[in-house]
Amino acid sequence: SLKQGAKVWVLAKLNRAPLEIVKGDIVEKFLMLSNGHDGSLAVRVGFTPIRVVCANTLAMSHGDSKSQLIRLSHTKNVKRNLDEVRNVVNAADAKFEATAEAFKRLAKCDISQEDIKNFVNEVFVKESHDDERQKLREQRMTETITRLFETGRGNDMAGVRGTAWALYNAATEYLSYEQGRSQDGRLDSLWFGGSLATNKHALEAALALV
Q: How many CB atoms are located within 10 Å of the residue 40 CB?
């Protein structure tokens, strides 16, 4: 649970073949079900890829309705509605495969220090100001993402090191483990809040480098 039980969640690994982005770098396919403990939130079902070597939560390609969260209301028919979720699992599996192709394109693209700086400005800084505080924030974020790009979990693997795939995973590792003050807050933001959008933006920005 998150927020002292305000939100409860379950992750279930789909009984489908995992994705291999490069040799030995596996991404598993998960279904996430969550709801508000007090009944104020709809039941939500989402499809979530998780990189095994680092347990980073990755963004699904979200340009298609099959990759969107399914929202089910708290009604007497909710069990029937949840039973119907399995009807879209195969379609979701196809979206996982399509997303894997995007990840593989990232793994084939080597990037430069200038690419990292531009990526950080696009994904994490967003606003451009000349004041010293802003410049310091840009510098610190660039240093953090560069560190994770070079030494983050799984980023030293052959076929990953030095690529846009390593850069994207530097961003997901930051969102999964370093941003915010607590793991509870990080997960809430990554799955339901601002980091969810940042994660998707990071994927788009990494793909723009390919």
A: 9
CA nearest to 152, candidates 178, 168, 173: 173
Residues 6+ apart with CB under 8 A from 35: 7, 8, 41, 42, 43, 44, 74
Kindly state the tokens that stand for 1: 């649970």
pTM: 0.85
Judge residue 11's burial from the number of C-beta atoms within 10 Å of its C-beta, 0-12 exposed, 13-18 middle, 19 or more buried. Answer: middle
- Tell me the pLDDT tens digit for each residue of 155-203: 999 999 999 999 999 999 999 999 988 989 998 898 888 999 999 999 9
Q: In whole angstroms, give the CA distance from residue 98 to residue 103.
A: 9
Block residue for tokens 């196809």: 94
